[in-house]
Specification:
The structure holds two protein chains of two kinds.
Chain A: H1 7-46, H2 50-64, H3 68-87, H4 97-120
Helix pairs in contact in A: 1-2, 1-4, 2-4, 3-4
Chain B: H1 17-49, H2 55-69, H3 73-87, H4 89-96, H5 100-129, H6 133-141, H7 146-161, H8 163-176, H9 188-199, H10 202-231
The chains are: A mainly alpha, B mainly alpha.
């Protein structure tokens, strides 16, 4: 490998800045959505309806024992297929990487926030 | 959904997809096991350092934790795999002499080990600090040195307190091995994606991987709960009331 050329950072800064903006956006959306979804899950887990609390517990345990990468891929590859199957469309609907990422992070973080909320309640 | 795909032969391979996933699982577990050893030893040392009265040991430990916890794991993987050999000629020379698979394997163990050490050190520190101050005082009052106080008084109880959060860290470590796919390590997640890409049977591949990860997580949880019960001191803290969380 040749000498280090740090000037590349200056030249790619606008590009990196775009990426950072998306990172921050995703963080904010996932945090807010995750807290709301996590609170609902925590309430479901503590509810006296057996079915509801079992379903929430199953969801949380599933999400917590699977790597995030796997969840990201599940949603990216399979939600179009599932949506097609659910709506009966002829082609899988386009979801797009960004919307898929938002949904994935909210659903994934929700499980972790649920545990935090439950400990708090 | 047709699980029979798992019994079909891998193109250009000498086994079924099930065997391919199983070999990935083997990498996942072996990497996690070695990384856990590094993480546990280094994390314990750092955790203890951060509770001593030596200001510089505390600062060094804190700096390590801040550094490793605040950089995304995938970035750390890339730094160890691509940047470090470029920066240090000796590492480069060693790395090119290795089989690429061995290089990925070693990188994954070191990276995950050092990353998880930061998290374990947090747990060990909080375990020691959860003990009443009097325990340390009592140790010193009995004429024990600082090292002896840690060895005989503080750590035996602190470790028992932090078994539940340690269980979480172990499960996180196993899940984090999936990130090693980014440097090309052929662990379970890599194999799953490969199977999806080559057969277009994403559903079956991902379902098999998900089920496997869930089973490993449950096993890890049960094993730690068993250890917790076995080493519990009767009538002390959560002694006798074992179980997961």
């Amino acid at each position: 490998m040749g000498e280090l050329d740090f000037s590349i950072i200056g030249r790619t800064l606008p590009y990196l800045w775009k990426g950072l903006q998306y990172t921050l956006q995703l963080t904010v959306v996932a945090a807010i959505g995750g807290i709301i979804w996590g609170t609902l899950l925590a309430m479901a887990r503590l509810s006296s309806y057996k079915v509801l609390s079992l379903a929430a517990a199953g969801y949380v345990n599933l999400m917590r024992s699977v790597p995030l990468l796997l969840v990201i891929f599940w949603f990216y590859f399979l939600s179009p297929v599932l949506l097609q199957w659910a709506t009966g469309a002829d082609r899988p609907p386009q979801i797009g990487a960004d919307r898929s990422a938002y949904i994935t992070f909210i659903l994934f973080e929700g499980a972790y926030f649920c545990e935090i909320m439950r400990a708090g309640i | 959904m047709n699980p029979a795909i798992l019994l079909e032969q891998v193109p250009d391979g000498d086994g079924t997809w099930l065997m391919s996933l199983a070999s990935g699982l083997q990498y996942t577990l072996v990497v996690a096991a070695f990384a856990w050893i590094i993480a546990f030893v280094l994390g314990s040392i750092l955790g203890v350092m951060r509770t001593t009265e030596n200001k510089w040991a505390v600062r060094l430990g804190n700096a390590y934790v801040e550094l490793f916890r605040n950089i995304p794991l995938i970035v750390q993987f890339f730094v160890w795999y691509f940047v470090l050999p470029g920066l240090v000629p000796a590492v480069k020379a060693w790395v090119v002499s290795l089989d690429p698979t061995t290089h990925q394997f070693v990188t994954a163990i070191v990276c995950l080990g050092l990353f998880t050490a930061a998290r374990i050190s947090e747990q060990v520190r909080s375990g020691i600090q959860a003990l009443p101050r009097g325990q340390r005082m009592a140790g010193y009052a009995m004429g024990l040195t600082q090292a002896q106080t840690y060895q005989y008084v503080l750590l035996p109880v602190a470790y028992r307190i932090v078994i539940p959060p340690m269980t979480s860290e172990l499960m996180n470590l196993i899940k984090n091995t999936a990130v090693a796919f980014s440097i090309g390590l052929v662990e379970l997640f890599f194999r799953t994606r490969e199977m999806g890409e080559l057969t277009f049977r994403y559903f079956e591949a991902f379902a098999a991987a998900t089920l496997t990860y869930v089973i490993i997580a449950m096993l890890a949880n049960r094993i730690m709960a068993f250890i917790e019960r076995r080493i519990a001191i009767p009538g002390f803290i959560s002694g006798g009331v074992g179980g997961g969380h």
